[in-house]
Structures are given as C-alpha cells and as structure tokens.
Amino acid sequence: MPSDQELIIQFQQSINKEAVFTQLLRKHQQKVYYQIKRMVLEHADADDIAQLVWIKVWNKLDGFKMESEFSTWIFRIAYNETLNYLQKQKKQSTRLSNDDLFTYENASGSSDEPKTTEIQIALESAIKQLPEKQRIVFMLRYFDGYEYEKIAGIMGTTVGGAKANFHQAVKKIEKFVKKL
Amino acid sequence: MELLKEKESLLQDQAWVESIVKKDHLNRFNLTNTDAPFNYFESFPDQILTRIQLENNNRTNKSGVKTFFINHYAKIAVAASFILLVAGAYLYNNTNIKKNTVVSIQEIPNEEMTNYVNTYEAIAELDFDLIIKKENASLENLEETEIQKIQKAITH
C-alpha cells in the first residue's frame, strides 16, 4: 500500500485525481469520522462534517506542502470544521443537559454501590460535559494514543497547552466520577 | 530515546485515567462512540466524489458567467482607455505646440526681430510697388462705365 506522501505526490501530478483521492479517502475516512463523531455524538452531524472535511481536502490537496503529516493536517481540518459546525448550529449537543444530570443524580442515589451502567452513564456524562478542547485532547491522547506534539498540531495550540487540557479533563472526570 | 520517553509519558497518562475509571468502562464508551451505520464507509467515497463533481460543475458554470461579464466589461474598458489615450495625446500635443509658439516668440532676441522686419520690409515694399503698377496698368484698360461704377462704390 503506498504511503500518504506517495499518494499526495501522485494526486498533485496526476490527471486521474479521483482514483488517487479515493485511496487516501478509504485509508483515513474512519479515523476522521470517529474524531468528528466523538465531538458531535450524532451520526447525521458527523456525516455532514465529514463530507465538508473531505471536500476541503480535495480543494486544498494540490497546495499541501507536506510540512506536517497528512493525518495531522486532515485532523486539523476536521477539528476546525467541527468547531465551525457547532458554532453555526448553536448546538449544545456536547454539553450535558439539565435533564441528563437529574437522571444521573437520581440513579446514583438509589443504592450504596454504583452499578456498571451507572458508572458508564457517569463516565459518558463526565466526558460529554467537558469543554470541546479538553474533550478532544482527552480522546486523542487516551483512546488514540497520540503524542502531545501531534495533538498540538491538530488543534493549533502548543504542546504545553495540549498537556494542560488533558490534565484538566482528567481532573474534571475524576471529580465527576468521585461523586458516585 | 525521545520515542521511549513519549511512550512512557503516554502509558503514564493512560494509567492515570484508568486509576480513576476502569479500562472496561472506558473501552465501552469508546465503542459506543466509534460506530457507524452499516456499510457507511463503503458508500462514503462515492458520495464524496459525486459531491465533488457537482461542486466542480457548479464552479465551472459560475466561472463561465463570470468570464462572460469580465470579457464584456474588458472590451468596454479597452475601448474607453484607447479613446482616452488618443484624446489625451491629441490634447497634449496641441497645448505643447501653442506653448512652444508663445515661448519661441518671447525668446527671440530684439536684434533678430529688427533684422527680420528690415529684411522683409524691403521685399514687401517691392512686392507692393509691383502690384500697384499692375493695377494701374489694368485701370488704364478699363472702360469709362466701369470706372464710374467703381467710383460710385467708393463714394458710397
């Protein structure tokens, strides 16, 4: 399987761009989609944003100078598009609604030992209530195992900033889960 | 060395999180948020390519309209600038000639002027005498009736 760099060079030189682009798309589409979905949580939204991201990639790939990794570049586009989309839609889908909190608190108060489902709900609530930046850093660091440098590249921040966001995210999750 | 450090740092971070929430719960959370409808990724590339083609078509249509307007206005602009250029050159030349004439008369020294007048005055007088002589000759040939007509015209 050709590397990203080889595919990009082929794309930039090729007449049959669509075939090369499809290879890149198939290679990265899942990671891009999941990154977006973790932020918006709904498939319909994630699908819309993923489409916008790949169209942007198509339009800008000719000018891509390979100064950063392709995956960092595309995740950064995905991150920015997601933030734009959320701002446009004025959706608070990533925030925990008052109803959710009420349900969670009632459920946790019903017995002495928290059940697995309760912990699961609490964890989801805790992650959902994190600010977008902290949540995405947490996801990229814990679940994807990315280096802070790459996370900083995706988010357009410093390594120190990324570390601070991860630290704050874990602290907030800890505080939330300890209530159980 | 750096890679090892980074890996250690990553493991530390993950261990910190797992000390707060069980790994099992974290994995379940990850699974629920990393699912997609059946066959979604199979059809997604075709969906994107169709959309790209549509956008490209729209763009070429739009750019066609733009080109028409650009061409239309460009023609008018070229014609207008050509007219301005010609008119400007004409006006510039005319004013320059006038200026030059005025300046050249002013700049002629008095000596040259008097020389010119003296030289051409003599020639002019000679020409004048010749004309008078010719006219006299022709007057002599005139008939009386014609002379009377001329006299009447002069007296009136």
Total beta strands of chain A: 0
Oligomer: heterodimer
CA-CA gap between termini of chain B: 128 Å
> Whole-number radius of gyration of chain A?
19 Å
Radius of gyration of chain B: 51 Å
How far do the termini of chain A sit from each other? 48 Å
How many β-strand runs of chain B? 0
- Under the CATH scheme, which architecture of the largest domain in chain A would be assigned? Orthogonal Bundle
Q: Roughly how much helix do the residues of chain A carry, as a percent range? A: over 70%
Helix and strand composition category of chain B: mainly alpha
Main β-sheet of chain B, in a few words? none
CATH topology tier name of the largest domain in chain A: Rna Polymerase Sigma Factor, Chain: A
Mean pLDDT of chain B: 80
Shape of chain A: elongated
Low-confidence stretches of chain A: 93-111
Biggest interface, residues from each chain: A-B, 36 and 30 residues
Helix content of chain B: over 70%
List SSEs of chain A in N-to-C order.
HHHHHHHHH
Largest beta-sheet characterization of chain A: none
